[in-house]
């Protein structure tokens, strides 16, 4: 039997997660983290959260969310997770849970189901072969998971692959090649450094130029709150950024993105920005960095040159509902 969410299922779902979801690399849940990720999230919706009961025992958990203010939110429902116990992990049960999620989206007027990094309910996961270093968000379905294979068989299309990348910052140094690029860019009027409101201007205009709502909100807020951000400036006008420079409590360097306005490309600024960001993280005793990027994103070459390795792949998936 599939039922909608009730708080009485919380501990049983946590136990299920810690038995099954961790097999795909997800971080364990505690009552506090379950509250933070799910119940207290402004996008948590009991009508889009389901539990599979077998003989009155919790054997499955599925959660989705919607929001017209989210990217694609006017047409898409987001699938956050779908977890089943090993003894109940049949195709039939996966399909029943998926049907419940999709029907809840259709009842909300949505035309498709998406699994992607815009989901505001963030699921942290551990990076393999590290001392429990973690990433704060799973940007899709792990390609080595049972759920990935099931969704493909159910007609979900893979729209892109996201490469999760990792670097231990111990011993990181900026190579001479990048220093030479920085000197050459400086001779052309460019500087890459931490944002200084007393000297630099044009952050809002730069962010608008990328047409990225998440960057506009997050980087704009960081600058307003005096959180360090590495920027590229042409004659003190900001034309690129990397960051912000935040060391999380788990030792990870938080990374929102990197960008250079198109009219200022071709000077190696992307590489310089990223290497200077890694250096800035070192300066505040950050242990490691992790990030994800599309497998076809040219920026992946910058990350690899800095020493990052792909440690896991996630699939961005979608199914459009039959109208």
Automatic annotation (TrEMBL):
Top-rank lineage group of the source organism: Bacteria
Domain (N-acetyltransferase): residue spans on this chain: 190-323
Pfam families in the record: Acetyltransf_1
InterPro entries noted in UniProt: Acyl_CoA_acyltransferase (IPR016181), GNAT_dom (IPR000182)
Official protein name in the record: GNAT family N-acetyltransferase
């Amino acid at each position: 039997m599939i039922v909608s969410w009730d708080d009485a299922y919380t501990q049983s779902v946590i136990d299920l997660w810690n038995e099954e979801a961790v097999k795909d690399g997800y971080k364990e849940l505690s009552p506090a983290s379950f509250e933070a990720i799910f119940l207290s999230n402004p996008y948590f919706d009991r009508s889009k959260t389901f539990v599979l009961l077998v003989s009155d025992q919790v054997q499955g958990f599925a959660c989705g969310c919607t929001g017209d203010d989210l990217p694609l939110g006017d047409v898409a429902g987001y699938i956050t997770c779908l977890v089943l116990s090993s003894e109940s992990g049949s195709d039939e049960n996966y399909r029943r849970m998926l049907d419940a999620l999709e029907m809840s989206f259709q009842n909300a007027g949505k035309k498709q189901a998406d699994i992607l990094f815009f989901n505001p309910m963030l699921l942290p996961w551990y990076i393999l072969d590290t001392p429990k270093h973690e990433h704060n968000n799973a940007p899709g379905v792990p390609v080595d998971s049972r759920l990935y294979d099931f969704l493909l068989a159910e007609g979900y299309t893979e729209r892109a692959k996201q490469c999760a990348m990792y670097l231990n910052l111990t011993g990181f140094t900026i190579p001479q090649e990048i220093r030479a690029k920085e000197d050459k860019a400086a001779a052309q009027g460019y500087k890459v450094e931490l944002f200084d409101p007393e000297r630099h201007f044009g952050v809002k205009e730069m962010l608008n130029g990328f047409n990225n709502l998440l960057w506009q909100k997050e980087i704009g807020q960081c600058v307003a709150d005096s959180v360090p951000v590495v920027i590229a400036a042409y004659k003190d006008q900001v034309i690129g950024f990397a960051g912000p420079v935040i060391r999380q409590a788990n030792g990870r360097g938080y990374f929102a993105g990197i960008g250079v306005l198109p009219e200022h490309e071709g000077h190696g600024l992307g590489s310089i920005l990223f290497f200077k960001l890694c250096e800035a993280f070192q300066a505040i005793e950050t242990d490691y960095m992790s990030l994800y990027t599309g497998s076809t994103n040219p920026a992946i070459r910058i990350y690899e040159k800095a020493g990052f390795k792909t440690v896991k792949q996630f699939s961005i998936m979608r199914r459009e509902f039959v109208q």
